Amino acid sequence: MNDNREAYTQKLKAKIDEWNAELDRLAAKADQADGEIKVRYYKQMEELRKKRNDVEQKVQELKDSTESVWDDMKQGVENSWATWKESFTRAKSEFEKAYKEGRDK
Least enclosed by CB within 10 Å: which of 25, 31, 42, 104? Predict the structure, then answer.
């Protein structure tokens, strides 16, 4: 079971690393925005980072958990993961749409 736990948490950490890189790309785009849009981007970025931190914390707790609570904790991580993924996908879409519209003007 420990090998499965390690593989599972490593997979999650790798995905978080990918999303951190994507957050950095979005932040670079936010830096180029002006006025109200820039403020909105930064607010969205802060919310995404808070949710990402929550997921990272839950992954660490899962990694450190005992066998007896593994399944319950895994479900909690998956719930947090789904929330993060939905928020990230939505924010990324909004960023890209607004960025494209701003560049087309």
Answer: 104
